[in-house]
Design goal:
By secondary structure, the chain is of the alpha/beta class. It has 2 domains: 134 residues, Rossmann fold, CATH 3.40.50.2300; 196 residues, P-loop containing nucleotide triphosphate hydrolases (Rossmann fold). It is 41% helix and 16% strand. It contains 13 helices and 13 strands. A 6-stranded mixed β-sheet has the order 1-3-2-4-5-6, with helices on both faces. A 5-stranded parallel β-sheet has the order 8-9-12-7-13. Strand 2, helix 1 and strand 3 form a beta-alpha-beta unit. Helix 6 packs across helix 7 and helix 10 packs across helix 12. The longest helix is centred in the middle third of the chain and has 30 residues. The N and C termini lie far apart (56 Å).
Length: 355
């Protein structure tokens, strides 16, 4: 099965891997030639059986699937895919179709249905619609996730002291560097607020900022939350689920209280940070991710490493850029600015925030 990898995607196109399954070599070659310059990687297969083997070996965000093929039909394989928990988009294509076939395809879980012969804009528009659908799903999930956390009300970094000016200068320098960032400071120093500000200043500002509290759930649940899981991965996993790494695609994943992660989960996180691939629980597939990792802790991670509670290699991976946040008692001159800011929000017409 040939593999074709584009050097980089065209702006506005998804950083996706696409699998083309069609028994006609001419159609496969046409689609490969069309999509390789636009997407991250494009694979092709000549049958549903070959496609299934390819899908076992790696993750695909989108499958372009012919309906009428020798052996297992496209609709038959699509039904099997959905039953197994595959959540990616599937565009069905066919030269022989009627209304009943189209209805069956859509009921089986097809994202779109295109008749052959088709023009390049038709298939490109179908892929764009799938991409937009995924983007909206991620945004809606992140919005619900963020609202459930009820993150603080401040919209910016408040204060005019030398400490705050220095922090803003640091963020301006660090924002353009797409490296991991470790924020260390006492509880209440505004680590998540700083992480959000750094995300907003970065080239990833158009992507999602996905926060997760590493101390809020058990190790087993946290692993599934971060990396996702396959259907049947554990009792109660009646369907597959994407992890927060997936929902942060193109943006920032913020790991709050990272020192609370148990050592086995630290090993899995290390592999994800190093390889930018995650393996959902119960799955053999490695899913590529494109995220920036920011982590925060109110402990000294170097002391945690010395005590054997935190992996040294993960610590070095996370602290490529390290920012220490000072408590308010060390820059008390910002109290007046904070009072003005909160008065403006809590009592309309009183005070004004100075950002």
């Amino acid at each position: 099965m040939p593999e074709n990898t584009a050097p980089r995607g065209i702006e506005g196109w998804p950083d996706w891997s696409i699998l083309i399954v069609d028994d006609e070599p001419g159609m496969r070659n046409f689609l490969v030639k069309t999509l390789v310059p636009r997407c991250r990687s494009v694979h092709s297969a000549g049958s549903a059986e070959e496609g299934a083997q390819a899908l076992q070996a790696q993750h695909f965000d989108l499958i372009i699937l012919d309906i009428a093929m020798p052996g297992l039909s496209g609709v038959g394989w699509l039904k099997a895919l959905r039953e197994s928990g595959y959540r990616g988009h599937v565009i069905l294509i066919t030269a022989f179709a009627d209304l009943d076939t189209a209805i069956e395809a859509l009921r089986a879980g097809a994202s779109d249905f295109i008749l052959k012969p088709f023009r390049v804009p038709q298939i490109l528009n179908a892929i764009k619609h799938c991409f937009e659908s995924s983007r909206l799903q991620r945004e809606n999930f992140v919005l619900r996730h963020t609202l459930s956390r009820q993150v603080g009300s401040a919209s910016g970094l408040i204060g005019s002291s030398a400490t705050m000016r220095s922090l803003r200068e640091t963020l301006a320098r660090v924002a353009a560097v797409d490296s991991t960032v470790l924020l260390q400071g006492e509880s209440g120093t505004g680590k998540e607020l700083v992480a959000r500000a750094l995300h907003a200043l970065s080239p990833r500002a158009g992507g999602q900022f996905v926060p997760v509290n590493c101390a809020s759930m058990s190790a087993e649940r946290m692993e599934g939350t971060l990396f996702g899981y396959a259907k049947g991965a554990f009792p109660g996993a009646t369907s597959a689920r994407d992890g927060l790494f997936y929902y942060a695609q193109g943006g920032t994943l913020f790991l709050d209280e990272v020192a609370e992660l148990p050592l086995p989960l630290q090993a899995s996180l290390l592999r994800a940070v190093e390889d930018l691939h995650v393996r959902p629980l119960g799955s053999t597939q490695l899913v590529p991710v494109n995220v920036r990792i920011m982590a925060a802790t109110n402990r000294c991670l170097q002391h945690e490493v010395e005590a054997g509670r935190f992996r040294k290699d993960l610590y070095y991976r996370l602290q490529v850029v390290e920012i220490a946040l000072k408590p308010l008692r060390e820059h008390k001159e910002d109290i007046a600015d904070l009072v003005q800011h909160f008065m403006a929000h809590l009592v309309p017409g009183k005070g004004a925030s100075r950002l």
